[in-house]
Amino acid sequence: MKIKLSVPILLFCCINVFSQQSIDLQTCIETGLERNFDIKIIRNTQQISDNNHSVGNAGMLPTLDLNASYSGTNNNIDQFPANGNDKISNSGVNNSGFDLGISLNWTIFDGFQMFANYSRLAELKKIGELNTRFEIENFVSNLAAEYYNLVQQYNRERNLRSAVRLSKERLRIVEARYNIGSMSRLDLQQAKVDFKADSSKLIKQQENLFTSQVKINQLLANDVPTRRISPVDTVIVFNSLLDRDQLWNQVEQKNSIISLAKSEQNISIIDLQKAQSKNYPYIRLSAGYGYSADKYGLSTLNRQNSLGMNYGLTLGFNLFDGLNKIREQRNAKLSIENKNLQFQQLVLSLKSDFSNMWMSYHNNLGLVMLEEESLENAHENYDIAIERYKLGDLSGIELREAQNSLLEAEERLIQAQYDTKLCEISLLQISGNVSQLFKTAQKF
Fold it and tell me: 3-class SS at 231?
């Protein structure tokens, strides 16, 4: 009897050989940072906050306007002299006027509110930069995690291919022995069932592999999301020498979320300064230069033209505004208190998350070492089992158990390595060191 792989498996093999693009994490990150839509959007948003940070937007500069207007009236006028003479009636009396001028308005002092506005715009600009940094860190972390998931899926697919080859070899041996009458039909059918079960697992794994490839294509904003991608890395390498105290110090200094929370605290303080600015008087300057022409239908003058300038200085102080100043300042102080409480809550939450990440990282390091030893034992156990099986000293069920033990050991090791890498990525992200995942961080 001739054994054949199923058509889906053969098709996938051909696609892997002829249509795949090999890519490393460095290239993935560089391409993603250049093309990902979320990164482009957050950078545009940051540019908006950068543009808004200006003295003009803060109200420090004067406004200069050019105005032109024309107006006219057409009336019927009845005049009654005081001396009792008969009334004088005029109909269709036209009056018109034309004005052209330039005007300047400038708030010279508003109780330091304009300076508070400028400081607030500076903090919003900083928040825009921090949001961009946070988005990039999040993107790099997600992309790195998916890249190593792709490595994991390829390793699983490779192991399942190996399992299919082992099952195929076992089926060949059983067939040969069945043909000479040294094995029963039950042994042959069981070997076929196991071979098909392994083939089924391989097909399912190919689906998982394809899903991971589509996810990476989406992150890279590839026009063809079904493009076949294979990772350059064949094993998941992780850093086993991270230092807990050093990482936590960097969390306090470099974590994007903490930096954003500090900026939010600063904004609440600035909002209080804005509210307090109403406690001071204000000074406003106005000036203008213009030309006006008036034409009278009924007057001792037919026309009047004027050309010149006007100016004025206003000093004002709000005496009473319905107690709104007091209300706004009280609310601003409460907002500052809330921001401080939220900051303390955030730091406590980060401490908890960091502790959980570190414990998981530490445990997975030990688990990797244990699974490496377990895989070594499983390989040795299978080698002994297959030799005994070829000699007829071991049943098919016992060989299958040895094969499953080997596959499970490989699966556990791959999972432990991947989980350790995810912990490393999470620790680097929370400590603001995600740039260590790639070499050209300064370019972006």
Answer: strand
